[in-house]
Design a protein that fits this description.
heterodimer, A: 21% strand, B: Rossmann fold, 2 domains, seven-stranded mixed beta sheet, globular, binds flavin-adenine dinucleotide, binds flavin mononucleotide, binds FE2/S2 (inorganic) cluster
């Protein structure tokens, strides 16, 4: 029997596969295609203290090997999640992680406190890296001091596993990662989307209502991989890698570069059952390379 | 239940220089498909990332076939034009809500451009399952864009308008004489947004219930990404799951 269990600083996943926030709804959108209990876990949509309508349409544009989005954290608020969505998914035998987003430290704390009371949510992913909301969001993830402040405040309010999601829109991502670690993060996940834009040359207008948006998909993978490698060398807490993972080979690359677990994002839109294919691919890879424990390949580069 | 199915191309016919009729067949029985629903087609071309949403134009349960009526616009649809008999196409289906058949007893179906696509299956279901022979009004730029005429005539009374007057009445669907003495009591419409908005205004003036099918750009097609939203009286709703069909009364047009 091979081992695929990974332990993220106390958060046990049956395998290293998670899904990226905002790309997997609340899991239920994918239940026709994926046995959710086969996943290491899934990370639900960005959740804020209050209801958010998000940005106006158009919010999406396909680009070369990628897509731009400007959804802007549309969600019905954490209390709606608690009363309407959580009861539907709480009994699933997998790790459900809430992506906590906000635009002020108070909002992050208030939202984390509510999630802290949900017994079947073992972790939050603190999103200090959303490029699509006007105030806050990414501002917390682009300076080491701001990151330290928000993470240490949330740390006091939240007792379970605290994963901090980093923005790649910085000069040196290791600085922010170290600040999150110093502030008490249990793990870091990276990367969120890269800020980008696209223009329709016929209408001479931007393709997104917000002009700029977040770039995801296979085009960002080499940069995301490099950042995961750098961060894994710089911190002592587990690193969760993501950015453009489309297949098992991509996932294995991230693990070799230092990711203890990975998240699948945009790929879910193209193949809704891709997470299961990636899991199968990882098993095949382990067999082919005589690997008994998936943890043995983490960070060997 | 939605599923991901490998279909085999049975035929791929060029209806005119920029429109194809793609018929694909499944090995397994088709799921139940409602009129107005769509599929999300995976494009076998490395320079295309996302699936492309396409309405279900016709369904043949017996032969496990669906037909897609596709306007070739960019890379994705151009790749679909290249498909040959025997090729495999990976399709996610059935997606979205459907037209509300109980809207009226004497429906007028209005289609413009590739928006005519979902109306054939709607006409068929009305005719075969509900004993209603609808009126279909197709609008296009000129004669060569008026396609599938004999198919519509199987289930509907067909009216045509062309901008250059080369076939049917000259003008836009909104100027057609069908509006002069309206014998219809509900409208189903699909086409360019500018046309749907004009029809919505007319139907509101005349107090006739009207549904439109929207074509917002999509990424997932299954309600996960929130990219396809439309502003409605309930806030942002997903065209892929709450739509594509909306009653005009809920839209903020
Ligand atoms: C629910 C739904 C049902 C649809 N049904 C049909 C159908 O039955 N037949 C059909 O031909 N098309 C249909 N469409 C539109 C179709 O999805 C787009 O034309 C297609 O995605 C374009 O892909 P492409 O790669 O060829 O073009 P791209 O390279 O993506 O774009 C080329 C050009 O087309 C425009 N375009 C792209 N997407 C859309 C869109 N969704 N609506 C309008 N313009 C667009 C772009 O702005 C660009 O100018 C439907 C769309 C939706 C959302
Ligand atoms: C449509 C969409 C919505 C997203 N929403 C969120 C979100 O709410 N919170 C968050 O932390 N990241 C969000 N992301 C970022 C993804 O979780 C992920 O970090 C990014 O897409 C890179 O991974 P990928 O290339 O595998 O998609 C979103 C991405 C997309 C494409
Ligand atoms: S296309 Fe993803 S939610 Fe509609």
């Amino acid at each position: 029997m091979v081992n695929t269990i990974v332990d993220l600083n106390g958060l046990k996943l049956k395998n290293p596969i998670l899904t990226a926030s905002g790309t997997f709804g609340y899991g239920t959108e994918y239940s026709d295609f994926v046995d959710l209990e086969k996943l290491g876990g899934f990370i639900v949509k960005g959740t804020t203290i209050n209801h958010k309508e998000g940005n106006p349409y158009p919010r999406m544009a396909e680009t070369a090997s990628g897509m731009l989005n400007a959804v802007g954290l549309q969600n019905k608020g954490v209390n709606y999640f608690k009363s309407k969505i959580y009861p539907e998914i709480e009994n699933l035998d997998t790790n459900i992680i809430v992506n906590v987003s906000g635009s002020s430290i108070e909002d992050y704390i208030a939202c984390s406190e509510i999630v802290n009371d949900l017994s079947h949510i073992p972790a939050i992913e603190l999103n200090i890296s959303c490029p699509n909301v006007k105030e806050g969001g990414m501002a917390f993830g682009t300076s080491a001091k701001a990151a330290f402040d928000v993470v240490s405040q949330v740390r006091k309010a939240y007792g379970k596993h605290l994963m901090v999601k980093l923005s790649p829109n910085v000069t040196d991502i290791t600085e922010i990662a170290k600040a999150a670690e110093d502030a008490g993060a249990d793990s870091v996940s990276l990367v969120n989307t890269f800020m980008g834009m696209a223009i329709d040359i016929n209408t001479q207008k931007p393709l997104l209502s917000t002009v700029t948006g977040g770039l995801s998909g296979p085009c960002i993978k080499p940069i995301a991989l490099r950042m995961v490698w750098q961060v894994a060398k710089a911190v002592n807490i587990p690193v969760v890698g993501l950015g453009g993972i489309m297949n098992a080979a991509d996932a294995i690359e991230f693990m070799l570069a230092g990711a203890s677990a990975i998240q699948v994002g945009t790929a879910n839109f193209i193949d809704p059952d891709i997470t299961i294919k990636i899991l199968d691919g990882i098993h095949e890879y382990m067999k082919e390379h005589n690997i008994d424990d998936i943890n043995d390949i983490v960070g060997i580069i | 239940m939605k599923s991901i199915v490998d279909f085999t191309v049975k035929s791929n016919k060029e209806l005119n220089s920029s429109t194809i009729l793609l018929i694909v067949e499944s090995k397994e029985e088709l799921p139940r498909i409602l009129p107005g629903q769509f599929v999300n087609v995976k494009i076998d071309n490395n320079s295309v990332l996302l699936r492309r949403p396409i309405s279900i134009h016709d369904v043949d349960y017996k032969n496990r076939q669906i037909s897609l009526y596709i306007k070739v616009l960019g890379k994705g649809t151009a790749s679909l034009k290249e498909l040959e008999v025997g090729d495999i196409v990976n399709i996610l289906l059935p997606l979205g809500n459907s037209f509300d058949i109980s809207l009226g007893k004497k429906p007028l179906l209005i289609g413009g451009g590739c928006g005519v696509a979902p109306l054939l299956y709607l006409a068929k279901v009305l005719f075969e399952d509900h004993n209603i022979k609808p009126t279909v009004l197709i609008g296009a730029r000129s004669e060569e864009d008026i396609l599938q005429v004999n198919e519509y005539k199987k289930y509907a009374d067909l009216l045509i308008s062309t901008e250059d007057g080369s076939l049917g009445e000259k003008g836009y669907p909104t100027n057609h004489t069908v509006w002069d003495n309206p014998e219809f009591d509900c409208i189903y419409c699909c086409g360019p947004e500018i046309m749907m908005k004009a029809i919505a205004v007319k139907s509101k003036e005349m107090n006739i219930p009207c549904e439109v099918s929207l074509e917002n750009t999509m990424a997932c097609g299954i309600g996960a990404c929130l990219c396809c939203v439309q502003d409605t009286d309930k806030g942002h709703q997903c065209v892929c799951t709450d739509g594509p069909v909306f009653n005009i009364n809920v839209l903020k047009w």
